[in-house]
Design goal:
Oligomer: single chain
CATH topology: Transcription Regulator spoIIAA
Order of helices and strands: EEEHEHEHE
Radius of gyration: 14 Å
Low-confidence stretches: none
Strand content: 25-35%
CATH architecture: 2-Layer Sandwich
């Protein structure tokens, strides 16, 4: 299965979807002008991945800002991963937010309440980079 990489822009995050590594990563601002166009290849990849997922799926969400349309797509993605989890797959989610961004922390909690996958919260200090 091909790895999908999307390069970060001013309105869209960098995205890495790797079946080989069992990685799903979103890093940056998620405010695309055409949300369906942006997410189409992502959801296609996810559908293919769900047929034969890695032994462990690690989801890293470090989104600095998102709009309401994008939040619905994030939730849809998390629901798909929750389906994997409910079927016995090992799925881990890291919700990463900037230290003083209470709003993004609360958004993570909102998503967390809607799925069964335990979510890890990581707070980054200013200028700290997560590897």
């Amino acid at each position: 299965m091909e790895t999908l990489r999307i390069i970060e822009t001013a309105n869209t995050p960098s995205v890495l979807l790797s079946a080989e590594l069992g990685k799903i990563e979103f890093i940056g601002v998620l405010n695309p002008d055409e949300v369906d166009e942006f997410f189409h290849p992502i959801f296609k990849w996810v559908e293919d991945y769900m047929v034969n997922p890695a032994d462990e799926t690690k989801i890293k969400m470090h989104i600095e800002h998102f709009n309401i349309a994008a939040s619905k797509r994030i939730l849809f993605l998390l629901y798909k991963m929750n389906d994997l989890f409910q079927n016995g797959a090992n799925v881990k989610i890291s919700w990463i937010y900037n230290e003083n961004d209470e709003k993004m922390f609360e958004h993570g909690q909102d998503f967390d309440h809607m799925i069964e996958i335990p979510m890890e919260y990581l707070s980054l200090k200013k200028n700290e980079v997560l590897v």
